[in-house]
C-alpha cells in the first residue's frame, strides 16, 4: 500500500465534488459500507470499493481518485442508492467524480478510443453491408452512417 503524505492531500476536493451536479450527498457518508455490500462490481473486481472511493474523496486524495481507473467501473445499477441510510447517492457522486476526471484529462485510453469511434461512425459498433442485408431481409431499413449528425453533438 502506497503511503500518502498529508502535504499531498487537498481538503477542498470534497467540496469540489459536492459542487458538481450529483455530488451533493458525498459529505453525508458515514462509512457504513452498505453501498459496497450492494455493489455487483465488487463481486467481480475485489479492488472496487465504493466506500473506499468516498473516503478517499473526503480525505482529499484528489490525484489518487481521479487517476484511478476503478472510478470508471460503476455499472449505474443504483443498488447502492437503495441501501444507503444517508441517501449519499453514490452513483450520482461517481458521475460527479468522472466529470471532474474528464475535465482534468484523466480518462482511460479505452474510453477515449470509444469516443473516437463514436465521433467517426455515430455509434460504437460499425454497421456494415452484412448487418444491413440482414436488416433488409427482416423488412428493416438500412442503418446509414451518422457521424455527421453525432459530430454536432460531441
UniProtKB/TrEMBL annotation:
Residues 19-49 form the 4Fe-4S ferredoxin-type domain. It comes from the Bacteria. GO terms for molecular function: iron-sulfur cluster binding; metal ion binding. Pfam families: Fer4_8 (PF13183). SUPFAM superfamilies: alpha-helical ferredoxin. Keywords: Iron, Iron-sulfur, Metal-binding. The keyword Cell membrane does not apply. One of its GO terms (cellular component) is plasma membrane. Coiled coil: none annotated. The keyword Aminoacyl-tRNA synthetase does not apply. This is 4Fe-4S dicluster domain-containing protein. The lineage of its organism: Bacteria, Pseudomonadati, Thermodesulfobacteriota, Desulfomonilia, Desulfomonilales.
Amino acid at each position: 500500500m502506497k503511503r500518502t503524505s498529508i502535504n499531498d492531500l487537498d481538503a477542498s476536493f470534497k467540496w469540489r465534488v459536492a459542487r458538481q451536479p450529483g455530488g451533493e450527498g458525498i459529505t453525508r457518508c458515514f462509512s457504513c459500507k452498505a453501498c459496497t455490500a450492494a455493489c455487483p462490481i465488487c463481486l467481480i473486481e475485489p479492488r472496487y470499493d465504493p466506500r473506499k472511493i468516498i473516503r478517499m474523496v473526503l480525505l482529499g486524495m484528489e490525484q489518487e481518485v481521479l487517476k484511478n481507473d476503478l472510478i470508471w467501473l460503476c455499472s449505474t445499477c443504483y443498488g447502492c442508492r437503495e441501501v444507503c441510510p444517508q441517501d449519499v447517492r453514490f452513483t450520482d457522486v461517481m458521475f460527479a467524480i468522472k466529470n471532474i476526471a474528464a475535465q482534468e484529462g484523466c480518462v482511460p485510453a479505452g474510453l477515449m478510443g470509444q469516443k473516437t469511434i463514436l465521433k467517426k461512425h455515430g455509434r460504437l459498433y460499425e454497421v456494415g453491408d452484412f448487418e444491413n442485408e440482414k436488416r433488409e431481409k427482416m423488412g428493416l431499413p438500412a442503418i446509414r452512417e451518422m457521424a455527421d449528425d453525432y459530430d454536432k453533438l460531441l
